[in-house]
Amino acid sequence: MREYRFDVKRCFTPENVVRLLFVCGCILRIWYAVVTPVTMRGHDIWELSVNAKGKAAYLLRLIEWGKLPDSYELQFYQQPFYYLLSALAAAVMRGLTGIEDAAFLVNAGKVVSCIASCFSLYLSERLLREFCSVRVRGYGMAVLSFTPVFWLTGGRLGEDALTFFFMTAVILGTVEWEKQPDWKHTILLAVLYGCGMMTKISLAFPAFYTAYIFWKNRKSSRFIPKMAVFAVFALPLGLWYSVRNFVLFGQPLGYVPSMGEILYRGDRSYVARFLSLDIKNWLTSPYANPYQDYNFPVYLLKSELFGEFIYDMPVWIPTLLLLFSTLLTLCVAGIGIYKICRWKSIPGEKRPLIWGLLFGGYAAISYWKLPYGCSMDFRYYMMLTVCKVLVLCCFLDEEPEGHFAQEQLLLQKGLKGLCFLFAGFSILFFVML
Question: I want to staple 155 with a disulfide (CB 3.0 to 4.6 A). Which of 24, 33, 51, 292 is the partner?
């Protein structure tokens, strides 16, 4: 008989490791979405009734009444695309099972979040392919697959996961358009922007980068007609609901409801909120508190992992996870600052740095315009993790050279180990939920 031997090296090639991490990340997202009730760790769900004004009521009105909200009170101001897709998913589940219970229907709406989170992971890996060799992509996928904010939003009713999907899609779409600015990529990018803005109006923000790429390629074939077609697709799709609410109810464009004085943090100085690291707060608890915290950098570090919630588990697990995540983030921030200082001479791609500055600036502007505790929640700024991973993997891909080659090699090895320590403790955190 022929003897079969298990070849570890052949099985665990870099390509297969990336695939395995992707599958594990999707399993984690699906598992969390299935076992977690919609009322657990949700945001603005409120009563599971058509008579309420929360996200559950938004969805139930679409399912039961077949119409959009008739006001912009509380959560009814939200853009409709996520809720339309969730209503479709819930209607399909109702048709298959015959279950009419409101809790079941609202839980069924999470399917869209879960699918969006899995596709976002795929698109993030596509971005890694654009900038990094396969030998380092596994380290990036170890972070992206298991960072808690991704599977937390993927198992939640709300537009956050779908918004992140469109964020990654329009950035990747812009990269593809830059390589091949034809009609197909122009229309696809326009539809992505339109559907993205129909999910969350903040999807207009990456358009600054896309506009810059368009301008760089303004001498390409039939540029003006392409931009006209882009606008014809993107603007009506993205703005029709805002225009509808303005015409019907007088809802101001860009409207955000009041969040209440209890969450207000504008009484703190800009230095305390933006320009310092609140080490005492970081050491006091691994969890973010929107009712007390005001320091933006520390809040981002905490909410990237745990959102705005506290978990019933030994405190050393989230504490060590926060430590590894903070070390990784600070190292990548240092690498980014160093590369920005050497902007004209840095090798490799500059775009991940530009995206990091763009989305970091968007996060800071959001908290400056709306100085409330919940405005700092990382679920609004998940592209920052993708930018962090891209900068990290570009650095790991570099061949150490020059006077500090040994130090660079040592740092690369340390960061590789840190990626898998972070992934391991993220999995442990998930298991202990």
Answer: 33
